[in-house]
């Protein structure tokens, strides 16, 4: 069945919004064990009153920008569902609720960037984000989440014009590649995002191994030179940490595999412990 011919720019925007919503649902499914039904309204309603914004820079050959915004009750609702799924007892600390929400948003952005990077065959990596009072101008969509217990939450996603311009120059134009885009109705209404886990199985994620950390005063950092030894806050018997998207996923021991270093997994981090690490 043929889809209506859409402006390539709007088709790209729709695909990006739908993809982000799908990544967000995936993250929530992992964190809570329940996959929310996700719908996208594009363009978003004009009102963004009481929206608290998270600015997520993305690094390509330049810094590009995107934002996610939600009011405080929405942030607490999402954080609470994650905390309860992790076995935490109420009342859950307010800061922990907000941290859980932020982690969810960042994980969604990370998976989203990895999918885009694979599509355009160009690196696109997350840079440290921060809360902002007012985002720059861009194109908005509103993601509606139907959470467990018939709870509805809404998150606003804004794509920076610099990001859209960069992608517009790289986006594949052949008919075969365009056919891979998700079908998007021509009308501006709520669009249901159906999960497509088979696509996610090919997503490449950056994996880091942490041997330890330490804090040094500026004076000692300036004195570092060839031959200097930095002592880590870790004993030789402590396990190393496997980190994905700035989140500790597992711990293990260092091994040698055919002349290369490797890590033998000894412990998978539970969602509850991941939340405690954020405190």
Defining traits:
279 residues; alpha+beta; Chemotaxis protein chec; Surface presentation of antigens (SPOA); 2 domains; eight-stranded antiparallel sheet; four-stranded antiparallel sheet; 12 strands; 35% helix; globular
- How helix-rich are the residues, as a percent range? 25-40%
* Average pLDDT over all residues: 81
Shape: globular
* CATH superfamily placement of the largest domain: CheC-like
Characterise this structure.
With 279 residues, this protein is of the alpha+beta class. It folds into two domains: 8-200, CheC-like (Chemotaxis protein chec); 207-278, Roll (Surface presentation of antigens (SPOA)), CATH 2.30.330. It is 35% helix and 28% strand. The longest helix is centred in the middle third of the chain and has 27 residues, at 94-120. The chain is globular, with a radius of gyration of 21 Å.
